[in-house]
Design goal:
Layout (H helix, E strand, L loop, with lengths): L1 E7 L4 H11 L5 E5 L4 H7 L6 E6 L2 E7 L5 H8 L1
Parallel strand pairs: 1-2
Antiparallel strand pairs: 1-3, 3-4
Length: 79
């Protein structure tokens, strides 16, 4: 099963710009606030936001951080 995790924070300016673009994809993306989910942040080694992790069968396939988040790559992952 394919899954995308979008790590964000309310105080993050780039996250606020990227979030509507991610939501518009209408894909199964979990939005995770780094301030309220510290265990997931630690487990996946999140050091910067925004970060998107693309996973398949529980395995990390790709990680995109900050300005390196590519909408087309996310779409292709789910197709």
């Amino acid at each position: 099963m394919k899954q995308a995790l979008y790590f964000t924070a309310n105080w993050c300016g780039p996250c606020k710009v990227m979030k509507p673009k991610i939501q518009a994809l209408n894909l199964p993306i979990d939005f995770i606030d780094v301030d309220t989910n510290p265990s997931q942040v630690e487990t996946l080694g999140i050091r910067n936001v925004p970060t998107i992790i693309l996973m398949e069968r529980g395995e990390v396939k790709q990680r995109m951080v900050g300005n390196n988040i590519n909408i087309e790559t996310i779409k292709q992952f789910f197709n």
